[in-house]
Design brief:
Rossmann fold, binds tryptophanyl-5'AMP, mainly alpha, 3-stranded parallel β-sheet, Tyrosyl-Transfer RNA Synthetase, 14 helices, single chain, 339 residues
Length: 339
């Protein structure tokens, strides 16, 4: 592809916090959908390590997970030649624009963020400023690259909408500076629920209800066998998210990994009951994750290769981020940097 066509590609950008190991929600809601975008878009994906420290982390674990997350991105099909893969903390422009955007983000807006409310309820002993202003940093992540689309799960929609509001506000004050991005949310898999509490989102904080990408097959099978279905006596695989959230979650997962529609799933499992359905979903997930787990385990040993990937990724990212930041500095009235 010649350079001019390359320049015209729309930009995709997303990130995941390396605050835990990647799970099925991260995969189905986000990473799975990223790999197929590389031909059509200019793609940037990063490990959101700056975001991770809004919750206390063990430093050695954070370092290890940041690298293993990169290995998992690649194992999920993100080709480092076609996607820019990097660590957020290696591109200092994120923190710099994050500060500036803090000054264009309202206290009331930040107070309304559901993730802030959830996380502060869970970490009552550490409700720090970073946890509160986190969406302004996320806006910086996105706006630095003039992203057109942000491929995320449903839970990040609110942050993406705030990013749009911040971009529009800034553009209205100073003239066109940022591309106003749109969230890019998959039709199925955008909100994977916990296998043990199907009314709560799947998250690493509930390990029993959470399937990790690196879980061994026996563990995945066990978690699906024990998945909570429904308290009704119907024992019927039927799409009814209100009355049957556990079954709806399993159908959603099954549909996301097999591509089957809900109607087809209902048809295939008619008269078979949960005892057949649960292990079948488990097997489908095991087979989907198997190549990723195997490739991740191989890739994680390639330390030098991974180092090259994140070094080159940060260099590429920084050259784009620098251009936006320079423009922003000028707009807000900072004296041009002499070096
Ligand atoms: P994070 O790290 O919580 O989640 C990473 C991605 O996984 C999706 N996700 C889910 N999707 C479906 N079902 C679930 N149960 C589930 N759990 C998580 C999330 O929607 C997300 O797409 N603030 C972001 C990280 C971030 C970011 C960014 C994302 C920082 N800067 C810029 C996009 C653009 C976060 O905490 O995601």
């Amino acid at each position: 592809m010649d350079q001019q066509t390359e320049v015209k590609k729309k930009v995709m950008l997303s990130g995941i916090q390396p605050s835990g190991d990647l799970h099925l929600g991260n995969y189905l809601g986000a990473v799975k959908n990223w790999a197929e975008l590389a031909e059509q878009f200019q793609c940037y994906y990063f490990m959101a390590d700056l975001h991770s420290i809004t919750v206390r982390q063990n430093p050695a674990d954070l370092r290890r997970r940041s690298i293993s997350q990169l290995a998992q991105y690649i194992a999920c099909g993100l080709d480092p030649e076609k996607n820019t893969l990097f660590l957020q903390s290696h591109v200092h422009e994120h923190a710099e624009l994050g500060w500036i955007l803090n000054c264009y983000t309202m206290f009331g807006e930040l107070s309304r963020m559901t993730q802030f409310k959830d996380k502060s309820a869970k970490n009552a002993e550490n409700i720090n400023g970073g946890l509160f202003t986190y969406p302004a940093l996320m806006a910086a992540d996105i706006l630095l690259y003039q992203a057109d689309f942000v491929p995320v799960g449903q839970d990040q929609k609110q942050h993406c909408e705030l990013t749009r509001d911040i971009a529009i506000r800034f553009n209205n004050i100073y003239g066109p500076t940022f591309t106003v991005p749109e969230p890019y949310i998959p039709k199925v898999g955008a909100r994977v629920m916990s296998l043990s509490v199907p009314t709560s989102k799947m998250s690493k904080s509930d390990p029993q209800g959470c399937v990790f990408i690196m879980d061994p097959p026996e563990e995945i099978a066990r978690k699906f066998k024990r998945a909570v279905t429904d308290s009704d006596t119907e024992n019927c695989v039927r799409w009814d998210p209100e009355q049957k959230p556990g079954v709806a979650n399993l159908m959603n997962i099954y549909s996301a990994v097999t591509g089957l529609s809900f109607e087809q799933i209902e048809h295939d499992f008619a008269g078979k009951g949960y005892g057949v359905f649960k292990p079948t979903v488990g097997d489908a997930v095991i087979e989907t994750l198997r190549p990723i787990r195997e490739e991740s385990s191989r890739m994680i040993a390639e330390k030098e290769y991974l180092r090259t990937v994140y070094t080159e990724g940060a260099q590429r990212a920084s050259s784009v981020a620098r251009r936006t930041l320079r423009k922003v500095y000028k707009r807000v009235g900072f004296v041009e940097k002499p070096f």
